[in-house]
Every structure is written in C-alpha cells, then in structure tokens.
Design a protein that fits this description.
Order of helices and strands: EHEEEEHEEHHHEHEHEEHEEEEEEEE
CATH superfamily of the largest domain: P-loop containing nucleotide triphosphate hydrolases
CATH topology of the largest domain: Rossmann fold
Strand content: 25-35%
Low-confidence stretches: 258-262
Number of strands: 19
Largest sheet: 6 strands, mixed
Length: 408
C-alpha cells in the first residue's frame, strides 16, 4: 500500500456542468449548437457560466482523503452523489477544478459495472480484474479467495445474466476488494445482499483502513457510514456540511426531512435539542438498552397552555416509525406557560433498539387551537451498534438457555 503525508484523494474546486437535451437529430440542430458553444465565453472571472439549457450537477467540491481514512458522501436522491463518484473514477471529467488520486484505484460504482452478461462469473472475474489493472497472474492467485468471499461458488461457471442483483453485487464487490488498492471508491453495493454479507463487507473495508487504504464511500446506509467513516460530507448540488459523522448524519436527515419543519415555530422556538446519557454527556452512538434522554430547551414568545408534547422515533434508512408517543402539559404539571419563559423538557427512555440509525422528531401540539405549534426534524440522531440481530428494530433483551433432558 502507498503511504505518504500527501493525500490519497484531493478534490479542489470541482464542478460538473450538464446540458439538458444534448441529443441533436440533425445537422440543422447540431451546427447552431456548436456555434453557440464556440462563441460562448466559458468563464467569467474564473467561474464557468451556464447557458439557458445547462445546469450544475455538483459545484464547489473541496475535500481530501488521507491514506488509512474513510470519507462518507451522503445526500438525498438527485443530490449529485453519482456524478461525484463518476468524477472520482474518471468516467466523467470535471467542468472546472482538479481531482488527484494516488496509487492504484479500485472502484465499484454500480452493482454489475463492467460485467458481460453472456460470460460466466469466472470469465467476468478475469475481465473485471483486467479492467481494474490486475494481471492474469494476479487474478489466478486470487481467484479462489474472490469466489469464496462472493459466496457464489455453485454458480461461478453460470452466465451472470442469470445472477440475481445480490449475486452480482457480491461478485463485483469481491473483485474490487481483491485488487489490493491504495484507494477504494464504492457506492451503494452494501444495500444489496443479506445482513451477514453487509457485515462482511464493512469488516473488509475496516481491514483496508488499518492497512492504509483510503476509502470514499457513498451510501444511504447510515449505520455503515457511522461504522466505517472518519468524517462525512453532505451534498445537495453543493456541499451543505462537512465534518464529524454524527453531525453529518443529523444534517443529512434534516436536509431530507420536511422543509417546513425547523426550530422556529409559532410562538415557540426550540433553542437547542440533544440526546444525552444519565451523566449529561451528548450521545451519538449507543448499545441496545442504554438509558438516554432527549432534552429540548423551548422559549415561549406567547402565553400557552393545554399543550401536548410529541416524540416520534423513526429508523433513518426507511423512515419506519418505531415510536410515536405524546404527553400532555397537565401530566407534566404545567399550567399556563407565560410569554418570555424558557422550559427544558426531557424525554427519559431506554433504547430498546437493534442496530441501525434512528431519527428523533419533536413536536408541540396546541390542543386549544387544534394544530401543531412546532416540529423539530430532526431533534437528534442516534446510531445503535450491535451485531447479534439481522432484522427488526425492537431489542427484546433475549436470553438463550440450553437444558439437557434426561435420556429415555
């Protein structure tokens, strides 16, 4: 593996411009289009400009990834993640800016990218290995390991057009991780396949990090992002946040949520909300059954009473509601909350949750007026770390015992 103080991946001021309706069916359309492009001034003060039929897919990308580190790229659908991946792997050239990659680069940006459907799995291993820069001798020496890791041994001599999407993903990922790369660029392959294979993929990438490989990982799987990445970037056309993974996940969830929601409500402003443990420390990741408290500071600009405080917890990957509870101001012993008052409300609870990324939403409902005064989306984010379960969201605190029965 290549190691150096120089970054493995360096992206500076990168942007990509596309044109709507670039297809020209006749010379009558093509020639004027070429003349317009030739006559257009491509930059103004060093900044590329747009024609009326053009748009920016991504802009202002600036980041670096050192050897032995992993960067997550997250964002809503259509945010420019796939374009960023194609820029990193050289499939697309940036309209402006520069990308520098050091060492051998392995990429897997589509489940079956580079596979020929009529060739067998074995033949595609050699084909894809050659595309990724492996010699035939290297593929020969790694073939058994590639096949074993992919778990498609019984079908390795079957044409891949008969493979399921999961089988394609496993074989493609297995080839990529046997290239012995210096830089690994990978996308949503971890969303395909069962939980045991996803776990194996994450463990393999963690091993790569320990060996000094730089990783760029694009995913909607917040659990995998949290386990693998040292920092993350949230993009939606241009970067919206870059920094610690926990904060990036919260930023992503807020960006993906209801744009009308926020901390500024009607008569109520939530000045801060966070998830803490019993000692008051802020929590981003926890084990199942940990005692936690969501606390929120609320400032009231008008006098209010007869309120219901709402707590909703959803799984971030699919927005499955795992808890939706309410408590009234009467139950809390609150009468009229005077204008100018600030109160702190705490939702103490136990995280009986299985592995995954979860989103906390907080709301205040005005019973007198029959409407919500405020929604905070998200009020906090939480990652549960454990590997015992493979599905579901409820941790049942299962204890397994074995009894030896007497022989008859």
């Amino acid at each position: 593996m290549t190691t150096s103080s120089t970054p493995a991946v360096l992206v500076e001021n990168v942007a990509k411009r596309f044109q709507r309706g670039e297809r020209h069916d006749s010379l009558r359309d093509l020639i004027p289009a070429l003349l317009r492009r030739a006559g257009r001034r491509g930059e103004t003060n060093g900044v590329a400009t747009l024609d009326r039929d053009e748009f920016w897919a991504v802009r202002d990308l600036n980041f670096q990834v050192d050897f032995g580190r992993a960067l997550g790229i997250i964002g809503p659908n259509g945010a420019g993640k796939s374009t960023t991946l194609k820029l990193l792997t050289g499939i697309l050239r940036p309209t402006q800016g520069e990308i520098r990659m050091r060492g051998r680069v392995a990429s897997l940006i589509e489940v079956s990218a580079g596979f020929h459907p009529d060739l067998t799995g074995r033949e595609n291993v050699y084909l894809q290995g050659a595309v990724m820069g492996m010699s035939r001798r290297e593929v020969d020496s790694q073939l058994d390991s590639i096949v074993a890791f992919s778990e498609v041994e019984d079908f390795i001599d079957t044409p891949v057009k008969r493979y399921s999407s999961g089988m394609n993903a496993r074989l493609g990922f297995s080839i990529a991780v046997h290239v012995n790369p210096d830089v690994l660029v990978i996308d949503e392959v971890l969303s395909v396949g069962d939980m045991s294979f996803q776990k194996k993929c994450v463990e393999r990438m963690l091993a790569f990090k320990r060996e000094g490989v730089a990783i760029v990982f694009v995913s909607h799987n917040m659990q995998a992002i949290g386990e693998l990445c040292d920092e993350a970037i949230v993009i939606k056309g241009n970067p919206r946040f870059q920094g610690a993974v926990g904060e990036a996940v919260t930023s992503y969830l807020r960006l993906s949520g209801d744009d009308s929601a926020g901390v500024q409500g009607d008569g109520i402003t939530v000045t801060g909300s966070q998830l803490v443990d019993p000692s008051g420390q802020i929590v981003e990741a926890a084990a199942p059954r940990q005692a936690l408290s969501l606390q929120a500071d609320m400032h009231f600009s008008v006098p209010l009473s007869d309120l219901t405080f709402c707590l909703v917890v959803r799984r971030a990957t699919d927005y499955l509601t795992v808890y939706d509870g309410n408590i009234t101001s009467q139950e809390l012993g609150l009468g009229v909350i005077e204008a100018g008052s600030t109160v702190r409300i705490r939702f103490d609870h136990t995280a009986h949750l299985t592995r995954g990324q979860y989103l906390y939403t907080l709301g205040v409902y005005d019973q007198r007026e029959g409407r919500h005064r405020i929604w905070v989306v998200p009020a906090a984010g939480l990652r549960i770390d454990e590997y015992r379960t493979y599905g579901g969201v409820a941790d049942l605190d299962v204890e397994t015992r074995v009894e030896t029965l007497a022989r008859v």
